[in-house]
């Protein structure tokens, strides 16, 4: 096992900056998600760490050893590919055995290690099958067993769950997490699915246009986004734009919103505030507001989407559509077209410097 | 359930018939009928067209076994087929690999065109151009002597290597095309997966790429081996006196000696031998693939 350090890595493809001065420290034994839209450079970064491609500048080290010019086969990494990339000409057991047999391990060792890896992914009895005889979830497990049987220093996963259906994906998320804990391997996981990143990882790195936007534990990124992009890409957020006042912002129409979290900005600077939809209280305005909710706005419900355990209200306010999520507590639901009062606390409001 | 699926198969065949019919009709008329006539001829003493009296005989087939010359020539032709096939693999497979996995876009199209070019040129023109290249004082001889500081004498004309060169040139596109198709179907991530597991490029080639492209190699080998064993044009023009092979003997029976029955019998012996070889080789090759 080993940690991975990426320092000031840049990679250009012609005029396109796929990675622009990216630095991330992947702690030993951690589960790390690289999150970003397509074209953000997350897969490029993973391929640099794997060694399929070399950076133009910057350093990459695995376990303290510089590897930025070491080819992939010498890096001792394990990788799971988006389409699993199982060898169709080999049985499941031979697929898993491949990494050990190219190293020239003795046959008996290979057989027992392969069986152990297949047992770990709960496919102990399917060693004799061919990949095409397996379901998507089973192929996924074989790919994982094949990647970890060689005891790699790092496990790299390139959108490994993207091809699975929703229910299976949730199962595999739990399974993957269990296996990762069991063997304690440093894991770097590329995904464009924010929910997957939130539920699985110890830390998340958000990438955009080849740059690292924000990096930290999921709770921190969700609760304290440092940019509008981070706020809206990881989860939903209502964004208010205006001028900083010292303890919040002033909207163009004069409404003041006070923010208890986020950046400290000098008064007068362009700034925005992000508020999560589930932090906003929605009411008809007749009842009493919670005392802590110092921020309030008036609006009108334009749409309600009922999703069983919660409802999402779209509220029109001064040309802006705000999103509010309300848990289903059995209370009266608000009708479309109804004037409402929105309120939330400054602690739920994150101040963000405008770019 | 079983009956249901049987009906489904039958109706599937019926609806497919209009699509199959033209091909099978053509094969019947253009290949099966003339070939049947040839089988018929091979059992005759004389060609009925010449007006001479004729009778049925096994003598034409017996001739093959009574004279060791035919067997010697057949073995020489099989060896020729094997050598040409091997050279086509050695030359064609790496080219197919580069076309399928290394080159992209425009440069791939350009190189592809160069590979297919022999297909579009007339066979005789191709062979006679080789004659100009290979003979003493020819293009190769002159060019090498112009570059090299010492005098060498290149005269490959009318030799076994000349025959091999001509045949490899004619048939290598088959190998390139069949291998290209199977290589191109191999997902690049399989190669990357192999390397991520610690395999060197050579190990990836041996254990992933070659096994997965085996169907292309086998198809290419079959497409080359069979016609080369019966080839006569290249051996005759480029081989001269050394270019006597089984195929040229058959050609002689039809064109020079006008002994069609013997020529037909020799052809069918060749066909039988080739079929036996393919039958014996196919399980081995299928296991390898």
Percent of residues in beta strands of chain A: 25-35%
Give the structural class of chain B: mainly alpha
Helical amount of chain A = 10-25%
Count of discrete alpha- or pi-helical segments spanning 4 or more residues of chain A: 8
> Overall 3D geometry of chain B?
globular
Q: Largest interface, by Cβ-Cβ below 8 angstroms: which chains and how many residues each? A: A-B, 26 and 17 residues
CATH architecture of chain B: Orthogonal Bundle
Q: What is the name of the CATH class of chain B?
A: Mainly Alpha
Rounded to an integer in angstroms, the radius of gyration calculated over CA atoms of chain B is 24 Å
Question: CATH first level of the largest domain in chain A: which class?
Answer: Alpha Beta
Percentage of residues assigned to helices of chain B: over 70%
**Using DSSP, what is the number of strands of chain A?**
21
Oligomer: heterodimer
Mean pLDDT of chain B: 88
Average of the residue pLDDT scores of chain A: 91
Number of separate structural domains of chain A: 2
Give me a quick take on this structure:
The complex is a heterodimer of chains A (355) and B (289). Helices cover 24% and strands 35% of the residues of chain A.
How would you explain this protein's 3D organization?
The complex is a heterodimer of chains A (355) and B (289). The mean pLDDT of chain A is 91. The longest helix of chain A has 18 residues. Chain A folds into 2 domains: 220 residues, P-loop containing nucleotide triphosphate hydrolases (Rossmann fold); 116 residues, OB fold (Dihydrolipoamide Acetyltransferase, E2P), CATH 2.40.50. Chain A has 355 residues and is of the alpha+beta class. Chain B is mostly helical and 289 residues long. Chain B has one domain: Orthogonal Bundle (MetI-like fold). Chain B is built from 12 helices and no strands. In chain B, helix 3 crosses helix 9 and helix 7 crosses helix 9. The longest helix of chain B has 41 residues. Chain B is globular. Chains A and B meet through strand 6 and helix 2 of A and helix 8 and helix 9 of B.
């Amino acid at each position: 096992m080993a940690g991975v350090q990426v320092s000031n890595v840049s990679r250009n493809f012609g005029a396109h900056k796929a990675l622009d001065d990216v630095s991330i420290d992947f702690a030993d034994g951690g589960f790390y998600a690289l999150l970003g839209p397509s074209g953000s450079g997350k897969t490029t970064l993973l391929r640099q760490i794997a060694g399929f491609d070399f950076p133009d500048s910057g350093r990459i080290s695995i376990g303290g050893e510089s590897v930025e010019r070491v080819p992939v086969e010498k890096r001792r990494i394990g990788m799971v590919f988006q389409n699993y990339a199982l060898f169709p000409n080999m049985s499941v057991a031979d697929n898993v055995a491949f990494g050990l047999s190219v190293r020239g391990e003795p046959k008996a060792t290979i057989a027992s290690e392969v069986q152990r890896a297949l047992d770990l992914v709960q496919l102990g009895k399917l060693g004799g099958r061919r990949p095409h005889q397996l379901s998507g979830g089973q192929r996924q497990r074989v790919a994982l067993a094949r990647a970890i049987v060689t005891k790699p220093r790092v496990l790299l996963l390139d959108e490994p769950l993207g091809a699975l259906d929703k229910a299976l994906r949730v199962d595999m998320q739990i399974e993957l997490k269990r296996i990762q804990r069991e063997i304690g391997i440093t894991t770097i996981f590329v995904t464009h699915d924010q929910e997957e990143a939130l539920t699985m990882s110890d830390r998340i790195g958000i990438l955009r246009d080849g740059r690292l936007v924000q990096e930290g534990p999921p709770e921190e990124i969700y609760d304290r986004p440092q940019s509008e992009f981070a706020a809206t890409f990881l989860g939903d957020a209502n964004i208010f734009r205006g001028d900083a006042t010292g303890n919040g912002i002033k909207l163009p129409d004069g409404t003041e919103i006070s923010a208890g979290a986020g950046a400290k900005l000098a008064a007068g600077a362009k700034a925005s505030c992000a508020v999560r939809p589930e932090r906003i209280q929605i009411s008809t305005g007749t009842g009493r507001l919670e005392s802590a909710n110092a921020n309030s706005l008036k609006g009108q419900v334009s749409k309600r989407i009922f999703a069983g355990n919660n409802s999402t209200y779209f509220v029109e306010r001064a040309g802006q559509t705000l999103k509010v999520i309300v848990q289903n507590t059995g209370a009266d639901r608000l009708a479309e077209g109804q004037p409402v009062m929105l309120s939330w606390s400054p602690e739920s409001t994150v101040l963000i410097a405008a770019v | 359930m079983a009956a249901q699926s049987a009906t489904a198969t039958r109706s599937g065949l019926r609806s497919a018939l209009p699509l199959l019919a033209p091909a099978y009709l053509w094969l019947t008329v253009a290949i099966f009928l003339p070939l049947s006539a040839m089988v018929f001829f091979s059992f005759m003493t004389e060609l009925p067209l010449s007006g001479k009296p004729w009778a049925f005989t096994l003598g034409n087939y017996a001739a093959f076994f009574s004279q060791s010359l035919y067997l010697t020539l057949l073995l020489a032709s099989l060896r020729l087929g094997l050598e040409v096939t091997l050279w086509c693999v050695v030359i064609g497979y790496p080219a197919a690999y580069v076309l399928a996995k290394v080159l992209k876009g425009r440069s791939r199209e350009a190189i592809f065109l160069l590979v297919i070019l022999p297909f579009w040129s007339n066979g005789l023109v191709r062979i006679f151009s080789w004659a100009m290249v290979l003979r003493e004082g020819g293009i190769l001889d002159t060019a090498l002597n112009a570059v090299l500081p010492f005098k060498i004498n290149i005269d490959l004309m009318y030799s076994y290597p000349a025959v091999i060169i001509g045949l490899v040139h004619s048939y290598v596109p088959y190998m390139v095309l069949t291998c290209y198709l199977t290589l191109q179907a191999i997902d690049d991530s399989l190669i990357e997966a192999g390397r991520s597991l610690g395999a060197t490029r050579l190990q990836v080639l041996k254990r992933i790429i070659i096994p997965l492209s085996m169907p292309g190699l086998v198809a290419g080998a079959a497409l080359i081996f069979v016609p080369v064993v019966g080839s006569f044009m290249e051996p005759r023009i480029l081989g001269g006196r050394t270019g006597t092979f089984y195929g040229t003997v058959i050609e002689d029976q039809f064109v020079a000696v006008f002994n069609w029955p013997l020529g037909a019998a020799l052809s069918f012996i060749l066909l039988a031998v080739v079929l036996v070889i393919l039958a014996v080789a196919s399980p081995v090759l299928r296991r390898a693939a």
